[in-house]
Specification:
Largest sheet: 9 strands, antiparallel
Distance between the termini: 40 Å
CATH class of the largest domain: Alpha Beta
CATH topology of the largest domain: Thiol Ester Dehydrase, Chain A
Order of helices and strands: EEEEHEHHHEEEE
Radius of gyration: 19 Å
Helix content: 10-25%
Oligomer: single chain
Number of domains: 2
CATH superfamily of the largest domain: Hotdog Thioesterase
Strand order of the largest sheet: 2-3-4-1-6-9-8-7-5
Strand content: 35-45%
């Protein structure tokens, strides 16, 4: 990741165990796909990553694909291998933490009354608020996440002389903004797919909207699951995603498809 040009997308993400203060986490990744880009200077690497705690228990796993530079531009292109990935996780594949119980959930303290049964498939929610990103705060947050990619810190690495905002920072902001309308979507348990559609830079103002893609009952007290599309933008009108050409709108930053647990 140190020399990555950009992190492009995600799939098959599952949170498989709780993480507590004092836990020690480590990760390991396996390359599962390669594809050279048409310019011959970069390519896409697909990796499956697992995060484990000090007991060697897997607490997280996901697939992502990253654009990286090719060391020798004159070298032959490697054999193209694109992994076959599920388009979405089934509700039965979602891990519900042992003992989780929302049957006595306090909606008054949560500050929003909406529960699983209140949301309808196809419903879209404008989260209204916006957050303007500054380079300094982004760099601090990126260090906290232990992301060392040069493009986030060194303005001389990119031809445009800009520091690229870490995609995880955009995801975090979009998730925080979604509180306005999805305050009770308490726990993310599955990541079906995700795309960093366009770059984000210091000075951009991030806004977000969500769409309910699916609903599922969960065999746990007082709990349901919502499949949600979370879209982060930097200027286009709410609910705009793609242009007439079918490509992402130039102001679309993030298109994330995930499962969240919510009181039923």
């Amino acid at each position: 990741s140190l020399n990555a040009v950009a992190n492009l997308g995600y799939a098959a993400g599952r949170w498989l165990g709780p993480v507590y203060v004092g836990d020690t986490l480590r990760s390991q990744s396996e390359v599962i796909g390669l594809k050279q880009n048409s310019n011959g200077k970069t390519g896409v690497v697909y990796v499956r990553t697992q995060g484990k705690n000090q007991h060697n228990m897997v607490v997280l796993e996901y697939v992502r694909w990253v654009m990286v530079r090719k060391r020798n531009h004159d070298a032959d292109a490697p054999k193209t291998v694109i992994p076959q990935l599920d388009t979405t996780l089934l509700p039965t594949q979602l891990h519900v933490p042992q003992g989780l119980n929302f049957s006595r959930y306090d909606f008054a303290q949560a500050g929003e009354p909406h529960r699983w049964s209140d949301y309808q498939i196809g419903e879209k929610i404008d989260h209204i608020d916006g957050v303007t990103i500054e380079d300094a705060e982004h760099m601090m947050a990126t260090r906290l996440w232990q992301n060392t990619a040069k493009v986030h810190f060194d303005a001389t690495v990119r031809p445009d002389g800009k520091r690229l905002i870490y995609g995880g920072h955009v995801m975090s902001l979009a998730r925080a903004l979604s509180f306005n309308g999805l305050a009770n979507a308490q726990m993310i348990v599955g990541l079906n797919a995700g795309v960093h559609a366009n770059p984000c830079f210091g000075g951009d103002t991030v806004r977000a909207w969500s769409e309910v893609l699916d609903k599922a009952e969960i065999v746990a007290p007082g709990i349901g699951a919502l499949r949600l599309r979370l879209v982060a933008t930097k200027g286009c009108a709410p609910f705009e995603l793609r242009g007439q050409d079918g490509k992402y709108h130039a102001d679309t930053l993030l298109d994330l498809d995930y499962w969240a647990l919510i009181p039923s």
